[in-house]
Amino acid sequence: MSKTKLEEINRNIYDIKNKDEYDFKIKKGLTPEIIEEISMQKKDPDWMRKFRLKALETYNKLELPTWGPDISELDMNQIATYVRPKTTLSNSWEDVPEDIKNTFDKLGIPEAEKRSLSGVGAQYDSEVVYHSMREDLAKKGVIYTDMETAVRDYPELVKKHFMKCVPVNDHKFVALHGAVWSGGSFVYVPKGVKVDIPLQSYFRLNSPESGQFEHTLIIVDEGASLHFIEGCSAPKYNKINLHAGCVELYVKDNAYLRYSTIENWSKNMLNLNTKKAIVGKNAKMDWVSGSFGSKISMLYPMSILNGEGAKTEYTGISFAGAGQNLDNGFKVVHNNKNTSSVVNAKSISKNGGKCTYRSQVRINENAKGAKSSVSCESLMLDDISISDTIPVNDIRTDDVEFSHEAKIGKISDKTIFYLMSRGMSEEDAKAMIVRGFAYPISKELPVEYAVEMNNLINLELEGAIG
Question: 128: closest CA among 151, 112, 158?
Fold first, then answer.
């Protein structure tokens, strides 16, 4: 093994495959008849059925993205957009079918719930199979449920916010999501309520040649606060799977939301996810993001700072190995005075993997006194890997503080030699460098909050140098 080439990650825990058994699986393809069938299976209200059909029309009008990784291998005629597992929604793990429960057990979800979470939702293929929340939060008026229940039980709240933050015509895969969405989470935190212990949703795709299109809608009302954790994984197949979820976040005046994600899809997955937040006056939106596993990823969380004094911070890392093309970044729009954004993005590439940091910072004319700091760092672990940085900084006012720095480099042979001269093995020296590089995101994911999320990131880093 050369000095900078690392072993492939061992994904055995996450590559657990259950039999492809289901209660219902929609036929492959994307037609109005298929959308009508999904809507009927979901027992949609009429407004949602019409919304889906309109979204399909938009999808058919929009072109594939002309920038970023080549996704021409995606053939929607080979993707089943709805798979209902052989179970119904339960608030007890004991009622979840054994094979599905065992999968989540091995991923550490029930144990994490007992130790460090105030609520958990677990989705398997296209349906949420388990959901629970602490009673004390419910008594305070906190709503945490699956999206289908929210559409039925809180129609006015959902209709007011659903796909308003992320409009259907945003891009082709948002329109696809609007047509076929299923599952996901709905959270409403009332004014002034502080949720001190995180809520978490976990998404598991099991069925081959299928897609997962969960919708997450979170509203943190004035003066409230929440930490929401999202995890996802899938076993590896030799056919393409698709993930095109959507996350809409509303952070009202003086509120706070932290949204932490580890995306650990398998290397046959196209991860075309969309996440966006609207941030009010003196409110703060924090993103913590890790992108691992997928064959192709196009993921750019976005904060729209609408309120005076609104703040956002993004801490993200991606790790690309052989055959992976991870195109990630962050977008922020400053729309008001004294807004601020801090971006800290890191990437690691090995064995010919490609990482791209693609970002946009826009500070509009009326955003006087805005501050923005952007830092992106890339670490290549060998001579065949690729790392690109493609920032767009659009500054439309002079009354602004703005800084941008980018660093791309390899593990230094001199650094390895120095550490080895102090008694460390070559593997331990590499491990120290990689873990030190990834520390900014590791420290944002403490064990007491999300055990299995730490397992994901540790597995990626430990397996890589094992």
Answer: 151
Burial per residue of 201-226, b for 16 or more beta-carbon CB atoms within 10 angstroms, e otherwise? bbbbbbbbbbbbbbbbbbbbbebbbb
- The domain spans of the chain are 24-464
Q: Cβ(444)–Cβ(288) under 8 Å?
A: yes
C-alpha span between 153 and 271 (Å, rounded): 30
List, in order, residues 6 or more apart from 101 with CB less than 8 Å away: 93
What is the SS3 assignment for 456? helix
Per-residue DSSP letter, 94: G
d(CA 253, CA 284): 9
Residue 351 Rama label (left phi>0; alpha psi -120 to 50; beta):
left
**What is the C-alpha to C-alpha distance for residues 374 and 371, in angstroms, rounded to an integer?**
10
How does pLDDT run across 211-247, given as a tens digit for each residue?
A: 999 999 999 999 999 999 888 877 777 788 999 999 9
Q: Which token pair is 49?
A: 């059925």
